Amino acid sequence: WIETELQSDSEQLYAPRDSREYVMTKLLADLDFAIENLPVSSTPYRVNKWTALAVKSNICLFEGTFRKYHDLKIEGNDWKHYLTLSYKAAEDIMLNGPYSLHSTGNPSKDYMELFISEATDNKEYILAVNYDEGLGVLHNATWYGTGASSGRVGVTKKIVDSYLMKDGSRLTDKAGWETMQF
After folding, report:
1. What's the pLDDT tens digit per position in 46-82?
2. Which of 11, 28, 46, 66 has the maximal Cβ count within 10 Å?
3. What is the pLDDT of residues 133-145, one digit of tens each?
4. pLDDT tens-digit readout, 93-111
5. Sign of dihedral through CA atoms 73, 74, 79, 84?
């Protein structure tokens, strides 16, 4: 963990690696500072308190599950500590943040409408990219659907199986799901 600007002859360039716990402690201290000092107002194209909380939740979720499922025994905090921090950060966003799930009043179209709308839905997005040809901020997402596949986008059965069904249930909970044809 380096907190100062390095030069090409800095001795810290050859320093040994810091412990995982030390790096996580420093990282979380930086995120907590950001959470306390960033604006509370929510604009989809600017980093704010809620963005920092989302990053903290994501990092702690990764660290907690990594430590748990790799059975890491590191001096310091255990996996439960990081999953608790993840939960608390996400809970803060859900209970106190200005966000809600996108809803047009038509649940069968909400998911599609969220991704085809040209307007930014401030209630759903915590941080968005403002793709704007006039600003020169572009993407190449349309090529995926119209490129070499000629619009026949192929996804694996595993991806299809990961989506919830219309009633909110999981396909994998249905008897015989492994052999169902689509």
Report:
1. 999 999 999 999 999 999 999 999 999 889 999 999 9
2. 28
3. 888 887 776 666 5
4. 999 999 988 888 898 888 8
5. positive
Identify which of 133, 135, 134, 153 has the alpha carbon closest to the alpha carbon of residue 143: 153
The residues, any chain, with a CB within 8 Å of residue 63's CB and separated by 6 or more, are: 24, 79, 82
- Could you tell me which residues come within 8 angstroms of residue 127 by beta carbon, excluding any fewer than 6 positions away? 44, 45, 47, 51, 54
Return d(Cα 68, Cα 25) in angstroms, integer: 18
How many whole angstroms separate alpha carbon 147 and alpha carbon 140? 10
Residue 124 φ then ψ, to 5°? -100, -45
Question: Which tokens belong to 86?
Answer: 């993840």
Q: How far apart are the C-alpha atoms of 55 and 70, rounded to whole Å?
A: 22
- 3-class SS at 108? helix
pLDDT, one tens digit per residue, over 6-53 is 999 999 999 999 999 999 999 999 999 999 999 998 888 899 999 999
Q: Which distant-in-sequence residues (6+ apart) come within 8 Å of 114 by Cβ?
A: 102, 121, 124
Residues 59 and 85: their CA atoms lie apart, in Å, by 10
